[in-house]
Design a protein that fits this description.
The structure is a single chain. 30% of the residues lie in helices and 23% in strands. It folds into 2 domains: 216 residues, Alpha-beta prism (UDP-n-acetylglucosamine1-carboxyvinyl-transferase, Chain); 189 residues, Enolpyruvate transferase domain (UDP-n-acetylglucosamine1-carboxyvinyl-transferase, Chain, Alpha-beta prism). The strands form 6 sheets. Strands 20-21-1-22 form a 4-stranded mixed β-sheet. With 411 residues, the chain is of the alpha/beta class. The longest helix has 14 residues. It has 12 helices and 22 strands. It starts with a strand and ends with a strand.
């Protein structure tokens, strides 16, 4: 379905109950399964990715299709290997072009037996009944932190634990720290000295945990606040001391005119008088909010230069290419100065006010989520394949109606 958006501003205070964190939910579901379901989880994400993971963990079939869920593909590859369960893991066509070779090589080096069924280094995978029993490996940390998290989650269950040496430039470190912090909550002892993480064979302890709201999802509300004249937006379920790396956006938006006031499990957004002329930032540790900032900065007419975007090309879409293509439709001419960078000099082309602008989403939820607020300034904006937001934020379209957005389905 394609949605044509309109925005008619509302002045009253808006309160939004954000979705649960997908990143935390997916890690905890693996921990729960490794603990033989002795752990109680509350407020689990309702996103498509998490639903795919739950279905896979409960599947009786030996062939499991996880669709577009990249985290699920990585975590389940390690999980089923550690469990000695024979399965075939497959996914969408995009998933079959998302690399997994580094993780498979690492698991096989630990003693697993995983085969490629089509293209070398990519899903689908055949995981054979051979439990990894060795404990020392090195892994390139410059491609995806999810490979590292997948190995860390199963480490306590390995017969001899795990001694993991990280090589290269490590990307998305907050996600690795998130994984280790959640493991620690459930009783796992670990050490991280220089580039080596050590985890002995041990058991996850039975605990209960309420999962906090998603800071990546919060970024779209900060974007809406920055573009509109709304008095305030209150976001429920957020913590000032969050484990999520994307919570760093609070400081970034402070520079862009949005302040955050924290209460008990909530954050209230309001305007401040801050203004900047240029924005430069390394998104190495917060890659999932890069799209939000690219769209917003263009709409605020603030030139920028982003660094640390190396992982964006192997996400649900090639996000650098997608941003360049779709922001060009709004008149903004972006470029990629070097690998892993994205920049806008301020150069733009004026568009006709009446023309329809169709934003392609490339099966990528974050393209739809980041571009939807642009309809505040562009009256004839169409988001194609709008249902893709269900991958991480199923209630998004219902929620934005509460602040004055309307949408009609168009062909």
């Amino acid at each position: 379905m394609n949605y044509k958006l309109r925005f008619s501003e509302k002045k009253q205070e808006v309160i939004i109950s954000l979705p649960s964190s997908k990143s935390i939910s997916n890690r905890l579901l693996i921990i729960q399964a490794l603990a033989k379901n002795s752990i109680v989880l509350e407020n689990v994400s309702t996103s498509d990715d998490t639903k795919h993971l739950i279905d896979a963990l409960n599947a009786e079939s030996q062939e499991i299709n996880i669709g577009h869920a990249g985290t699920s593909m990585r975590f389940l590859t390690a999980f089923f290997s550690a469990m000695g369960k024979e399965v075939v893991l497959t996914g969408s066509e995009r998933m079959k072009n998302r690399p997994i070779g580094i993780l498979v090589k690492s698991l096989n080096a630990l003693g697993s037996n995983i085969e490629y069924l089509e293209k070398e280094g990519f899903p689908p995978l055949k995981i054979n009944k051979k439990i990894p029993h060795l404990h020392q490996i090195s892994i390139d940390g410059s491609v995806s932190s999810q490979y590292i998290s997948a190995l860390l989650l199963i480490a306590p269950n390995l017969p001899n634990g795990l001694e993991l040496t990280l090589t290269g430039k490590i990307v998305s470190i907050p996600y690795i720290k998130l994984t280790l912090s959640l493991m620690q909550h459930f009783g796992i002892v670990w050490t991280w000295e220089k580039n080596m993480i050590r985890i002995e064979n041990q058991s996850y302890k039975s605990e209960k945990l309420f999962i906090e709201s998603d800071w990546s999802g919060a970024s779209y509300w900060y974007e809406i606040m920055a573009l509109s004249n709304l008095d305030s937006i209150e976001l429920l379920g957020l913590s000032e001391n969050s484990l999520q790396g994307d919570s760093k956006l609070v400081g970034l938006f402070e520079m862009l005119g949005i302040s955050t006031e924290f209460g008990k499990n909530k954050a209230k957004l309001h305007k401040n008088s801050n203004k900047i002329d240029f924005f430069e930032y390394n998104f190495n540790e917060q890659p999932d909010i890069a799209q939000t900032f690219a769209v917003l900065l263009c709409l605020l007419d603030i030139p920028f230069h982003f660094f640390g975007l190396e992982t964006l090309k192997i996400k649900e879409s090639n996000r650098i290419e997608a941003l360049i293509n779709e922001l060009a439709k709004l008149g903004f001419q972006l470029n990629e100065p070097q690998h892993g960078e994205l920049a806008w000099s301020g150069k733009k082309v004026e568009l006709s006010k009446n023309q329809n602008i169709e934003i392609e989403t490339y099966n990528d939820h974050r393209m739809a989520l980041a571009f939807a607020p642009a309809s505040i300034l562009f009256e004839n904006l169409i988001i194609k394949d709008a249902g893709v937001v269900s991958k991480s934020y199923p209630e998004f379209w219902e929620h934005i109606e509460e602040v004055g957005f309307t949408f009609e389905e168009v062909i």
